[in-house]
Amino acid sequence: xxxxxxxxVQRIVGRAVTDPEFRDALKAHPDTVFANRDVTPxxxxxxxxxxxxxxxxVGTELEQRxxxxxxARAGCH
Length: 77
Fold this sequence. Notes:
Layout: H1 3-18, H2 20-28, H3 30-34, H4 41-48, H5 52-76
């Protein structure tokens, strides 16, 4: 796999985890999301097959944990 495609896939997955609107667009209109991105047809098929709802719940949990850590640190000062 070319490095540029790996980076493009990583950006798509990373954004899907943290951006619910992007994740919804990826589920509803993946070909539009892939337009102008350097991902191969095989990578596109793999991304289309992902369980984006589960990934979304991971993103939500991550946000909650980070938020709680921020509050905990704020209370320590």
